[in-house]
């Protein structure tokens, strides 16, 4: 397997699935860092979801960004809006490209594998951070305002 400039190893040339290179040169992917990275992308996906709701384009599959904890990941996932909203009903759940889940480090577990994406649930400290940064959670706006002071 070769390693790309972004720290990902190519798993398969035909599928071009990338997995994180968790070598020390890229720094440790701590639970907090993973959850913060995923929450940042989830916020982008919330903006995509809001635009789709507002504009109502004729899309069966909506493009969302992989919510894995890898800072350099830019994989696009296509899924029905209903599936995205079902995942977003849970503050600890995220959508990831197959192979991007971080189950080995204990930061998350696979909830379900679907066609083209995986649903993962944050565990431990990562779960606490994910819930605190969840834009759909009650009281999250107050937490964000306090963080910006």
Key traits:
alpha+beta; about 150 residues; two-stranded antiparallel sheet; disordered N terminus; disordered C terminus
Task: Write a structural description.
This protein has helices spanning 31-55, 81-88, 124-132, 140-148; strands at residues 8-10, 18-20, 62-65, 76-79, 93-96, 108-114, 117-122. With 149 residues, the chain is α+β, with helices and mostly antiparallel strands. It has one domain (29-137). It starts with 7 loop residues before the first strand and ends with a helix. The relative contact order is 0.16. α1 (31-55) packs parallel to α3 (124-132). The strands form 3 sheets. The protein has a 3-stranded antiparallel sheet, sandwiched between helices.
Summed up:
The protein is of the alpha+beta class and 149 residues long. It is built from 4 helices and 7 strands.
Helix content: 25-40%
Question: Over all CA atoms, what is the radius of gyration?
Answer: 15 Å
How many structural domains? 1
The fraction of residues assigned to DSSP E strands is 15-25%
Q: Uncertain regions: pLDDT < 50 for 5+ in a row?
A: 1-26, 141-149
Write the element-wise H/E pattern from the N-terminal end onward: EEHEEHEEEHH
Termini, distance in Å?
A: 46 Å
**Backbone shape:** globular
Q: What is the overall pLDDT average?
A: 78
* Main pleated-sheet profile: 3 strands, antiparallel
Write down how many β-strands occur, each being a DSSP E stretch of 2 or more residues: 7
Strand order in space, largest sheet: 5-7-6
Number of helices: 4
Structural class: alpha+beta
């Amino acid at each position: 397997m070769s390693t790309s400039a972004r720290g990902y190893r190519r798993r398969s040339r035909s599928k071009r699935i990338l997995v994180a290179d968790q070598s020390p040169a890229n720094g440790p992917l701590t639970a907090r860092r993973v959850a913060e990275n995923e929450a940042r992308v989830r916020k982008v996906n919330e903006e995509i979801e809001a635009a789709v709701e507002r504009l109502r384009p004729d899309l069966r599959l909506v493009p969302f960004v992989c919510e894995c904890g890898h800072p350099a990941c830019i994989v696009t996932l296509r899924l029905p809006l209903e599936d995205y909203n079902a995942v977003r009903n849970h503050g600890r759940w995220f959508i990831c490209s197959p192979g991007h889940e971080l189950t080995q480090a204990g930061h998350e577990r696979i909830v379900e594998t679907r066609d083209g994406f995986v649903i993962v649930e944050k565990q431990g400290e990562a779960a606490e951070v994910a819930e605190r940064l969840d834009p759909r959670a009650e009281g999250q706006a107050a937490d964000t305002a306090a963080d910006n002071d």
